[in-house]
């Protein structure tokens, strides 16, 4: 025959036996009260521990909520700063293009000054001496080819970019 468990096994009684042994065991009220009392004490301790853990969790949850509330304004500030950085990067790119254009214009201006310094004496000489045919010196007409670089003219050195942006 298969052994049976005590009806108070859920409360902590570990007795197993035949039906006859189980009936005799069930009459031991004193022992069962002791098992139930021990089980209740253990359950109270478990409940107390669980209550403490729940309270700790609630407290931690409250702290996390407060921290989260403190982060919302920071998040807004970070988003605003991100937009500002993006705008500034766009302006820096425009400034870089403008700077490159100015540098190219300065290089062209330097070459033009050098050209003017070379041809000025010829132009002055040409105006001083009036030619009977009324012709001008060939140097005064336009810059010679190759002045601005190998086989290039002044036209080849016009700025490659649009005018500097005015919205900066």
From TrEMBL:
Coiled-coil residues: 47-118
Sequence segments annotated as region (Disordered): 121-168
Keywords of this entry: Coiled coil
Protein name: Biogenesis of lysosome-related organelles complex 1 subunit 7
């Amino acid at each position: 025959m298969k052994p049976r468990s005590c009806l108070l096994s859920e409360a902590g009684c570990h007795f197993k036996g035949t039906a006859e042994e189980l009936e005799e065991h069930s009459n031991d009220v004193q022992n069962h009260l002791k098992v139930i009392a021990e089980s209740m004490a253990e359950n109270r301790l478990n409940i107390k521990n669980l209550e403490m853990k729940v309270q700790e969790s609630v407290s931690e949850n409250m702290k996390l909520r407060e921290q989260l509330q403190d982060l919302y304004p920071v998040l807004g500030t970070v988003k605003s700063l991100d937009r500002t950085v993006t705008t500034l990067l766009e302006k820096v790119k425009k400034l870089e293009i403008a700077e490159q254009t100015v540098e190219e214009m300065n290089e062209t201006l330097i070459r033009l000054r050098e050209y003017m310094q070379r041809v000025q004496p010829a132009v002055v000489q040409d105006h001083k001496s009036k030619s009977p045919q009324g012709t001008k010196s060939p140097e005064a007409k336009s810059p010679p080819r190759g002045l601005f670089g190998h086989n290039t003219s002044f036209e080849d050195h016009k700025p490659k970019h649009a005018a500097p942006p005015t919205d900066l």
